[in-house]
Amino acid sequence: MNKHDKAYVILLMIVEFLWTVGACSIWTFMKDNHLKNMIVSVYASLVVLTVITLTMRLRKSSHARVVTIATNIIYLPFFPIGTAVGVYGLWKVDRKQKPR
Question: Is residue 100 one of the residues assigned to a domain?
Fold first, then answer.
């Protein structure tokens, strides 16, 4: 793993924590049950997607690159944190190092 891959894994862990906290706070404080269930299900889906991506990256699976690209594309609309992580993941992660 190069330094960008390590940084990306750490970013994924932070984002997963933030989305879990966000889902718990929405579940706790929101009054409208239908809207609350919809928003929490989106957050839960993102947490599951992040866990799958982290697991595949840490196990160095052969499909980790494809799952990482798909995850980054899904993150892009979630401004500002998801967009930043998605752009970083698409731009720097899984790139081959240039020989010096």
Answer: no
